[in-house]
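Request: Give me one sample?
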Amino acid sequence: MESREQARHDELRTEPDWMRIGVGCTLLTGSLLLLTGKRRAGLLATFAGATLAALEHKEIVREWWDTLPGYLDKAQQMLDQATATIDDLSAKRDKIMSLLRK
């Protein structure tokens, strides 16, 4: 086991991870373009960097994609609950206001 880790460490030391370098450079370039006011080019470069990062970590992206509908359903339930509470409070406010006017 230790020899495998040593081999991986030696491999990393001799071969740079070009995907990570590409992702980092693309994200940095996009950020700099956004800071200099070149919005479209900055967004495009940042999107390209994010896409490269997603391609490198397909399993994580797949897990997020699979769990996203559940989070969206929970968020929708919370919004529906908040809307119902606001409607209820508005109705009670109107009732109190009508009692105070009499």
